[in-house]
Structures
1.
Amino acid sequence: MTEEPVGDPRAPTLPAMRPFFIVWTGQAFSLLGSQLVQFAIVWWLTATSGSATVLARATMVALLPQILIAPFAGTLVDRWSRRTILIVADGLVALATLLLAALYGAGAVQVWHVYALLFVRATGAAFHWPAMQASTTLMVPNAQLARVAGLNQTLLGLAGIVIPPLGSLAVATLPMQGILAIDVVTALIAIVPLFFVAIPQPPRSEGAGRSATVLADLRQGLRYLLAWRGLLLLTIMAVGINLLGRAAGSLGPILVMRDLGGSAAQLGVFLSASGIGSVLGGVALGVWGGSRHRAFVALLALAVDGVAIAAVGLSPAGAFPLLVALVLASGLTETIAIGLLGAVGQSIVPPEIQGRVFALHASLANLAAPVGLAVAGPVADARGAQFWWLLTGVAILAISVTALLTPAVVRIEERPRPALT
């Protein structure tokens, strides 16, 4: 393999990363505020309706924009100013949150109002995520992309650990409009730096063209994805893993409390272990920075993740410490795999089409999640949640080993890119 993964020659040098960290810090505050509000909204819907159907509808409302709108949002990211998109996405979400806070304050809120907010928030995220990912490529040196991915994964892991107790405290001490106000403040913290920090725009190459329509640009991104066998196989991998993995995570409480006879306290430890594993994986990736064989290490970590998940599905009822250790190991290795594969994508996809390619990849992966959730419930009721975890682990192991044996995937950073047409 080459000594250094293929990167974009326009990527900045390490001393130029200060603007990125200014922007990233603001976005980190916004993420924590959004997670806090998400917790409070789920609590309110549960306490108000007591209906699993209401929660399922809320999940679908939040997921649909990530499936249907994301590809078009990613295409617009490649056409428009990425800084403007970040500002508008954060601003619209803050405005919608402020409106809902006013409805709570007036005592006029209804469940459909909450659905509307969830839809707006998810639509904002559909624009925000590809814009931030594509901007990172031109603000961070190629050699540091894995470290930044580790930093992002650490933040997500920390949010998974601290938001539930903070959310519980907020729900117990603040009215809903007060909790929503926190999200508005953190959104403003994210927006303000964007007015003072330049977000690089990639020059549009001749191959990328200036298509007359958004649909033409979207078709170009799809052709590019289909033409690159390694990238297409990684997308298919993500679809398969999302199909099973999202559902396995949702069945965690059933696995611990029904299948293994655990207590509520043990469930809390089980859920926290995954978050702690994510933090450890993010920290390890941030300190280590990955290797020049990023795809190989990512797939190896994914294989270990599959083994750990399958072992959870085989764990006996009396071996709770083993169960916690396996979940922690899964969180750690999954975080390393996600971080490294994300860095690979940022390294190999041309910056001028990253918005649409990343969004298409995410949209296809997210499309599998509702299918898996619909199938997992009846299967878990008939065979147990442990069976679904075992099935998920074996599938992830098989997918990762197959990818390790496929040169187009494991050596994707060395392979020539398809031409932009």
2.
Amino acid sequence: MPTDPRDLINRSPMSRFQWGIVAVMVGLNALDGFDVLSISFASPGIAHDWGINRAALGVVLSMELIGMSLGSILLGGVADRVGRRHTILGCLPVMAVGMLGASSAHNVLALCLWRVLTGIGIGGMLAATNAAVSEAASAARSSLCVVLMAAGYPLGAVIGGSISALLLQHANWPIVFQFGALVTLGFVPLVWLFAPESIPFEMQRRGPHTLARINATLARMGHPPVSALPPVVDTLPKAPLTALFSPGLARLTILMTVAYFAHLMSFYFILKWTPKIVVDMGFAPASAAGVLVWTNIGGTVGAVLFGLLTIRVPLRPMTIAVMVLSVVLIVAFGHGQAGLGMMAAMAAATGFFTNAGIVGLYALIARDFPTPVRATATGFAIGVGRGGSALAPALAGFMFANGVGLQAVAIVMATGSLIALLALAALPAGASLRTNFKA
């Protein structure tokens, strides 16, 4: 039997407890999906109540993405220093406060500030959850588990969107944020009870009680204890963010970040503007939320099928293939549809491929970066990507406000997925580019 706890995890079948950790992280990402899209569900009501135009609404829709950028970059490094679990437990209350504050906002400036705060919490949590899932899974199921975690995003939007559609039939837009805050707080005890610190991170940190904590987690996973820990091989660099641009990781970091940034431009155009486009077609806000739900149903199905295919199909070529189809579907989405049913079907198909591209990028980041900088790398890619993609809703809003038609806007926004597939194609050949940081 292996004596290195990481080998025990990598070589053994996954236990119910390990799948439970994955399930908690799926739930957290589902929470992210709802929190990010809550402003989309609420945007038609906000525009009506406050009388703001499309350009101003585009700025509001971008605010939590800016917060996510800050949170991902700043707190990704924190997750590599204090742990994945502590970072998640710190981010959840921040998200809840931001959601409650947004529900009480009475002007655009206040709403923007609360959405930035919510985004900071989401960004930090995302950097930690991606690393936590990768490190809790066996080697054979690591990519599948990361993809399933990422699939929580559209799942949360589907569940949250369905509930939002019901709530909006009986109350105004603040109820969407209030509901999100309550659910966010409900995850604190779940993480506390069912998501221990990852063993690979514990083996980096090495304190007087590390062996006892690792053996306690191994016992919950159904593994025997180890009597001693092997020597440290991977150690945390003094500046994890700087380490991403070391000779062994710089090319990977740049290309992954470009791919994530570019594809998110396309992804968030679909997610952020679908409700307003549907309302402008003459349908009620509740119907707009319903179409957005179908977008995320497509995204959920796409993510799950993508995850199952990772067992048999190489990860990078499959991600490139779905990027190609993402370009095609976004352009087709911009052609417009005759009725609500056709609009929902096209939105679902577009969501299928755009979200499959997102989960593919998550899996590649988790697979290719080493443990000491995994959360930092995730945070940097998400931070730069989502911060830059904040331009997507604002850019689309500016073009709409200046009379540019939906088809032309969609073509412009589809170029993001095109750039992403070119960046992935430029990655060095090989399944993984992991390097070790020597003590």
3.
Amino acid sequence: MFSDRSTFDDALVDYQSARDEHVMPMYEMTFDFAQLDQPPPPEMQQVLGAVARSQDAMDDFVSVQAGTLPIPEFFSPDNVGRIMAGT
């Protein structure tokens, strides 16, 4: 990203845009979990309950929290279906 000949300010704007796009799903998930005045929606409660019953799903959820597994990948319909099925 910094290898082209853009100005420093332009490079920082580009970097911030790319960074924000990359981390926005984590920010939104963290913000949603931080809403302590209300429980998660029932669908999320069901998914988290199923995660708690599977070591593989728990490991993947920790990877989501660490930022090493993309949130959209973890919450994809196929993966959530696998978690809910306990496979």
4.
Amino acid sequence: MWYIDSGASFHMTKNRKSFSHLKEKDMHVQIELGDDGQYVSRRVGIVIFQRDLGNSVHLRDVLYVSGLRQNLVSVATLEDKGYDVIFNRGKAYLQCLAYGCKK
């Protein structure tokens, strides 16, 4: 299960098996979560999952964070890629109005 998080700076998961592609990067991203926990990520990759309705979703630049409790989809990252994130009646919708939204 993935949670859409308006406070997350990155897409993140703790499940290494979720990645279709994962590589170690020369980076040191420190993540602070609401539980005051601090986590470090040095791996980034692509996660593909099936939506309830329609096509699969490809999330790029997903951080692997081993101590994370939940999988997070970052609203800010989606918006940076040109998507509008619309919340309506308990559901979230992604809409790409701009030409060339990045996947």
